[in-house]
Write a structure and sequence with these properties.
The longest helix is centred in the C-terminal third of the chain and has 17 residues, at 328-344. It is built from twelve helices and eight strands. The protein has helices at residues 27-39, 64-69, 84-96, 112-117, 148-162, 179-194, 226-233, 243-246, 268-272, 303-310, 313-323, 328-344, and strands spanning 13-19, 44-48, 100-107, 167-170, 200-203, 215-218, 237-240, 288-295.
C-alpha cells in the first residue's frame, strides 16, 4: 500500500486500549477484541481495569475490591471482574495472537471504586457510595489514609507479577488531588512498580515523575506538553493516543447513536490523517514508541457496539503504526475486501463515507 512520507517505518508500540471498568466485558468478548486487534496488525492490548464506576481485577489480600466494587458500571450496568484464572486465559489468548497484555489500575484519581471498597483508603474511614455516572476528576487517594501505602504496593506488585511487560499506573485527571499530594502519590505508585522489577507507563499528567526507559502516554495535546518533551529528552518513551484522532469512542458523526463528542466527531478520514511525528512540536520523533487507539465504554454495552466503533477506524490505525499514514485512495480501495472478512467473522462495522463499500 502506498504511504505518505515521512511516516514510513513500523512502530514498536502498536496498541489498542479497552475500557472494561466503566462497562465490564467478559473474557470471551475481550478475546474477540483481540481478534480484531490482530487482524489489523496491532501488538498491544491495554486493559483499563479500574475507575470510579468499577474495579475489575481480583487482587490477593483485598477481596473487598471485587466484593463491593465489581458489581457496578455506568448507568447501573451488570458489572463483573476477572479472576486470576480469567487473567491467565486472557494472557494466553493474547500471546497466541502476538499481543502483549498491559494491565492498568488508574490512580490516584479515578479511584471511587477503590474508595468505596476499602474504608482505610478514606481519611475519615467512611466509604463513598457507588458511582454510576460519567463525570471525572472528583475522586482521589489520600497519602495519609491508613491503608494507602499498603494498598498501592500490594496492587502494583500483583500487576507486575501477572504482566509480561510494562504496567500502567494511570495518573490522569486527578483534579481532586492537591499538586504536592499528587506528586507524592504518583512517586509512591511508580516506586511500587519499580521496586519489584516492573516498568511504568503513565498518562501524560505524570510525565515529570517518569524515568528513562519508562513510557508516557499522551491523550490530549491541548494540555501542557512541555513535561512530555522534557521526559522524552531524558529517555522516556512516548505513546501517542491523541483523542481527536484515535479515541474511537468519539462519534462518527453528530447523529451517531453510540459515542461521545467532547472533542468533536471522528470519521475514518480523520483517523487516517494522523502523522505521529508531527503531532507535538518539539518532540523528537525518535522518542515515539508508537500509537495506541483507545476505546472508552460509557455508551457501549455489547461486543457489537465495540466492534462497530473500532471498525473501520482501527484499520487506519493499523496502517499508520505499521507502514505510515496511508495513501487514502489505496487504503479506501482495499477496505471493501477487509469488510467482507469482517462480515464473515461476525464483526459489526460502520460504513464510513469516502469508501465505495459495494
Amino acid at each position: 500500500m502506498a504511504v505518505h512520507s515521512p511516516e514510513s517505518t513500523a512502530y514498536a508500540w502498536r496498541g489498542l486500549s479497552l475500557d472494561v471498568a466503566r462497562r465490564f466485558f467478559p473474557v470471551d468478548d475481550v478475546i474477540r477484541v483481540m481478534d480484531i486487534a490482530e487482524s489489523v496488525g496491532l501488538n498491544r492490548l491495554h486493559l483499563h481495569l479500574s475507575d470510579d464506576q468499577g474495579w475489575r481485577l481480583d487482587i490477593p489480600g483485598w477481596p473487598q475490591l471485587v466484593e463491593r466494587s465489581s458489581g457496578s458500571g455506568v448507568g447501573g450496568g451488570p458489572g463483573g471482574f476477572y479472576t486470576e484464572a480469567d487473567w491467565d486465559r486472557l494472557a494466553l489468548a493474547a500471546e497466541r495472537r502476538g499481543l502483549l497484555l498491559v494491565p492498568e489500575i488508574d490512580l490516584p484519581g479515578h479511584s471511587n471504586a477503590a474508595l468505596h471498597a476499602v474504608e482505610g483508603l478514606n481519611l475519615d474511614g467512611v466509604r463513598p457510595p457507588v458511582y454510576e455516572g460519567v463525570e471525572v476528576g472528583f475522586s482521589s487517594l489520600r497519602i495519609d489514609a491508613p491503608d494507602t501505602e499498603r494498598f498501592v504496593r500490594d496492587v502494583y506488585r500483583y500487576l507486575v507479577d501477572i504482566a509480561e511487560g510494562p504496567v500502567h499506573i494511570g495518573g490522569d485527571e486527578s483534579h481532586a488531588t492537591e499538586a504536592v499530594e499528587y506528586g507524592r502519590l504518583v512517586d509512591l505508585i511508580a516506586d511500587s512498580v519499580r521496586s519489584v522489577g516492573g516498568t511504568v507507563i503513565a498518562w501524560q499528567e505524570a510525565a515529570a515523575h517518569l524515568e528513562p526507559g519508562e513510557y508516557v502516554q499522551v491523550w490530549d495535546p491541548r494540555l501542557a506538553v512541555q513535561p512530555v518533551i522534557d521526559a522524552a529528552e531524558r529517555g522516556v518513551q512516548v505513546i501517542l493516543s491523541p483523542a481527536s484522532y484515535v479515541y474511537l469512542d468519539m462519534k462518527y458523526r453528530e447523529s451517531s447513536e453510540l459515542g461521545l463528542t467532547w472533542i468533536g466527531t471522528t470519521e475514518l478520514d480523520r483517523t487516517a490523517a494522523l502523522e505521529p511525528s508531527r503531532l507535538i512540536d518539539g518532540l523528537d520523533p525518535a522518542s515515539i514508541a508508537g500509537v495506541e487507539a483507545t476505546l472508552w465504554t460509557e455508551t457501549l454495552r455489547t461486543f457489537d457496539d465495540v466492534s462497530y466503533m473500532l471498525l473501520p477506524r482501527l484499520a487506519a490505525v493499523g496502517e499508520i503504526v505499521r507502514h505510515g499514514r496511508p495513501d487514502w485512495d489505496s487504503f479506501a480501495a482495499d477496505l471493501p475486501a477487509r469488510a467482507a472478512e469482517w462480515e464473515r467473522r461476525g464483526w459489526a462495522w460502520h460504513r464510513s463515507p469516502g469508501v465505495t463499500w459495494g
